[in-house]
Each structure stands twice: as C-alpha cells, then as structure tokens.
Design brief:
Blueprint: E1 3-5, H1 15-21, E2 30-32, H2 40-47, H3 51-62, H4 68-78, E3 90-95, E4 98-105, H5 116-119, H6 122-132, E5 138-144, H7 148-157, E6 163-170, H8 176-183, E7 190-196, H9 199-210, H10 213-221, E8 224-228, H11 234-253, E9 263-268, H12 273-284, E10 288-295, H13 300-307, E11 309-311, H14 332-339, H15 344-357, E12 359-361, H16 364-371, E13 374-378, H17 381-395, H18 401-417, E14 423-427, H19 435-443, H20 453-464, E15 484-487, H21 491-499
Parallel strand pairs: 4-14, 5-6, 5-8, 6-7, 7-15, 9-10, 9-14, 10-13
Antiparallel strand pairs: 1-2, 3-4, 11-12
Helix pairs in contact: 1-6, 2-11, 3-4, 3-11, 11-12, 17-18, 17-19, 19-20
Length: about 500
C-alpha cells in the first residue's frame, strides 16, 4: 500500500514513511492511494477472532511494510489485559428490550478515553517504522490536545526508548481530571505545556512548527526528528478503522443484524478523525447507513454539513464537552480529498482559503456526496446535562458529556428522518473524567463548584455501582510535575528549550 498527500505531489510514500513523518512535507495529510475492500468471507473469518487478531488483520491491509506477525505482536501488546480491563472495543446492547440500540465503549484503556485505542499501538508502529527506514534519530512526538490525546500520547510513549513526547494543551480549556492526568504525568521523556489560547491555537502552532524548515534542519543536526501523535498521523487513524469493522462483526456475531444490513453510527466529533475512520470502514465494506456527526456549541461541523460553508470566523465556546471544543477540524481535509476524487489542487485552494480568510465553500457535487452519508447536529451544555440524566433513567447507563451530545443529536435526527435502523453510539470517554457535569445530570441537581473531583467521582461510583478507573482514582493526591504556562507565540521557543537546541 502506498500513500499520497492531500496537497498533491508525485511522490508515493510507504506506510512506514507516512507513520514516521506524521504529516506530508507539503503540509498535506497522508491517505492511502486506494482503499482495500473486505469480502463477505473476510468478515466471516473475523467473527471468531479476538480483538488483537481482528485489529492486526485490518491493519495488514493498510500497513504493508509490516508483516502480519509483526502487527499481531504489536496489537497483542497494545490491547493486553493489563492495559484494557475488558474487550477493548466493547459493543453493548443498552436495553434487553430494545434490539436496535447499542453502545461501542472505547474508553476501557489506561487513560479512560478512546484515544488509547490508537495511542497504545502507535509507539510500536512508530519505532518499528523508524527501524524499517534505517533511522536512528530520536523521535520527538509533538502533540496538541483538547484533553484526551495528550494524556493518551504521554502514557503510550512514556519511557519508550529513543522517543520524547511534548504535549501542548489550552490553558484552562480542559476538564479538571484531564488537567490532573497530564500535570501528574511521570516519565523522563514526557513534557506537558499549557498554552494561553484555544485548542485551535495549539493545533495551528503545532502545524506551523512541522512546516518550519530551519527547525527541522536544527533537529537533524542534533540527531532528532519530529513526528505527531495527533490524528493527522495516519498511524493514529488506521487503528480506529479496525474497531468499526470489529463493531460490525460483533453485531453479526450476536445476530443483531443480518449480513449487509445497514446500521447507523453516532460519533461525538471534534477533529473529525474518529468519524472519518468510520467512513473508511464503510468504504471497506462495512454497511453503515448514516454517520451522525454530533457537535457541541462549537457547531462548525454541523453548519458545514448543512450548508457546505466552513467558516471559523465565529465565537469560540469552552463547554462541558471540552474534547470537542474545535473550530478547525483537521481530518476533514482527508474526506474532501477522497470525495473530490483526489483533487489535490481543489483541496489545497480550500485549505489556503481557510488559513488566509477563515472560510471556504465547497462545490455542490462534493456537498451532495457528503450529505448522502453524513448528518450533522449539535447540543448545548444544558442539553448535554439533561441528556445524561435521560440516558441514565432510560437505560440505567451512565455516559460522559461527549457521548451525551451524541444521544441528544441522534434522538432529534431519528424522529425527524423516521430512521429506525440499528444504531451504535460511540462512547468516547469514561463518565468519571467529567464527574462534575455527569453527577449534575445523574442526580438532576446543581452541586457546589468547590466540591473536589475525588468526592464527585466517589458520589458517581456509589450511585452507579461503577468502579472508578485506577488511572483516575486519587489523582489529586499525586504530585504536580508539569506546571509551565506559555503564550501561543512561545511554542517553538519552548520546544527548543526542552530539547536544548537553538535554531
């Protein structure tokens, strides 16, 4: 399998090159030159496999520089029982009397967020890719996070030889638990920095740094090279494709749907990577009917899917679903490239307009192709809290704020469209990560904001009979190891200081 850039160019990249680099030299994102297809027999073969085998099988279609045995070794290590407390991509029927509503729980890993599904695997892929390319430089993983990616990257790459990870997050723009997870991170190769600004500021800063040729030269002189753990890296996205294929396989295995029967998938969406992975699974042969893109009050994706205009010139809101607080959804570029039949010139024009003017408008043909699959909707903070309580009352199931946004958006879509297909709600984080908002929803009561996170988690555990994940319990008692706060203009300077270089 070869890879190409969404911004064009004649060069074809190997899967190892795409994973190691993270982003194409011309600023584009890597996509496979073609999308592999699954036959009905392929699907049947997956049914009796455990999750590591399923994941390795899907990965092997895309990562052809790696042998199947290598990939299986990595997936067995990444999805081991020591790291995941249950089947890593668990499909749960929410109500025994409702045969059409399911949950895909992706947060049973070390950091209690769906990012673990990729970031427990990426260090193995990244270091193996470097070996295959004969590269001995220290790999500096540079990551912007809205809350979950940062901790998952830190935990995945912690003390991995010949790597260093630097995470930037928006100061006061993540939940208290997310902050504590990152601020207390151990590992000699781990660095965490708060940036005064929004997630989009940190993400834009990281992209600019990747395009800084003088910094790249200085890093090379110091035997170092940059890469990314954000979903702009194909090595982050491809493991996510695997769990959507696995979801279909589990629905078939449980006889919840018939072969080829379409089902809907609801994804809380920020940077568009998770829902894009579902689209790639669909192109491989998974019979997804509609992909519901659920947004919070930063509803730029909802507006885009309706109008075809992407306009980031709007207010930015900090919400109770902070991992979706985006105004620039990077992975949308990949979808536009795919649905314009790899028209790199057109995609480049749109991306330049977004950077220069903050807005672009797609053509009617591309808009219709998107709208044939994707449905957008949004939910504000009050609706999120109410939905947490509604889901708890109806299903006796506690969901986090992001998953609640998905439920809220889908309920209105299903009524409007009279769509009664089987639906899978993607649950992206443990409810304990957002205990304040979740407790308010479950108890239908406002609580004193001074109540500490541990007390809130204890209340939620007692009410729900759910154990507090070990990675979250007693977080406030752990020492703070990272307390640096900088302006967005100092991101490059901070990297140089951390790495002890000067470009």
């Amino acid at each position: 399998m070869q890879y190409i850039s969404t911004r064009g160019g004649d060069y074809r990249y190997s899967s190892a090159e795409a994973i190691r680099a993270g982003i194409a030299p011309n600023g584009g994102l890597f996509v496979p030159a073609s999308i592999p297809k699954l036959t009905s027999q392929d699907i049947q073969d997956l049914i009796e496999m455990d999750y590591p085998h399923r994941a390795a099988t899907i990965l092997s279609r895309y990562l052809t520089d790696f042998t199947f045995d290598e990939l299986l070794e990595y997936t067995n290590l990444a999805y081991s029982e020591e790291k995941f407390d249950d089947f890593p991509a668990k499909v749960t029927q929410l109500n025994p009397y409702n045969k059409k509503t399911f949950m895909l729980e992706l947060w049973h890993g070390p950091t209690s967020a769906f990012k673990d599904m990729a970031l427990q695997l990426l260090p193995y892929l990244m270091t193996a890719a470097a070996r295959k390319l004969g590269e001995e430089k220290e790999i500096c993983i540079l990551t912007a996070t809205s809350g979950d990616t940062g901790k998952a990257a830190l935990e995945g790459f912690k003390d991995v030889p010949n790597t260093r990870v630097i995470v930037f997050y928006p100061h006061n723009g993540v939940s208290k638990i997310q902050y504590l997870q990152m601020a207390t991170q151990t590992g000699d190769n781990c660095h965490v920095v708060a940036v005064k600004g929004s997630f989009d500021d940190t993400q834009s800063g990281v992209k600019t740094i990747f395009g800084d040729l003088s910094l790249a030269e200085t890093l090379a002189e110091n035997n170092r090279v940059l890469s990314s753990a954000n979903s702009i890296n194909w090595g982050r996205l491809v493991p996510q494709i695997a769990y959507y294929v696995s979801t279909y396989v589990d629905l078939l295995k449980g006889e919840h749907i018939k072969p080829g029967e379409a089902f809907n998938v609801v994804v809380p969406t920020g940077n568009f990577g998770n829902i894009l992975a579902a689209w790639y699974a669909m192109q491989m042969g998974v019979p997804i009917g509609k992909l519901i893109c659920a947004s919070n009050r930063n509803k730029i994706l909802s507006d885009f899917l309706r109008s075809g205009t992407y306009d980031r010139n709007r207010p930015f809101f900090m919400t109770n679903s902070p991992s979706m607080d985006f105004l620039i959804s990077s992975n949308l570029e990949r979808l536009l490239f795919e649905l314009t039949d790899h028209d790199a010139d057109q995609v480049s024009t749109w991306m330049e307009a977004l950077q220069d003017e903050g807005v672009y408008v797609i053509d009617d043909r591309t808009k219709k192709r998107i709208q044939s699959v994707f449905v957008g909707g949004f939910c504000d903070e009050k609706g999120t809290i109410k939905t947490i309580g509604d889901v708890y009352q109806e299903y006796d199931h506690v969901v986090d704020t992001h998953t609640a946004v998905g439920f809220n958006v889908y309920e209105r879509y299903a009524k409007r469209a009279q769509d009664d297909r089987v639906v899978v709600f993607v649950s992206t984080a443990s409810p304990f990560k957002f205990a304040g908002a979740v407790v308010t929803g479950v108890f239908d009561e406002e609580f004193d904001e001074t109540i500490d996170e541990q007390t809130l988690m204890d209340m939620l555990a007692k009410e729900s009979d759910m154990p507090i994940p070990s990675g979250l319990d007693k977080l406030s008692e752990r020492p703070i190891k990272h307390d640096l706060v900088i302006s967005k203009e100092r991101m490059k300077e901070t990297i140089e200081t951390i790495l002890n270089i000067n470009s």
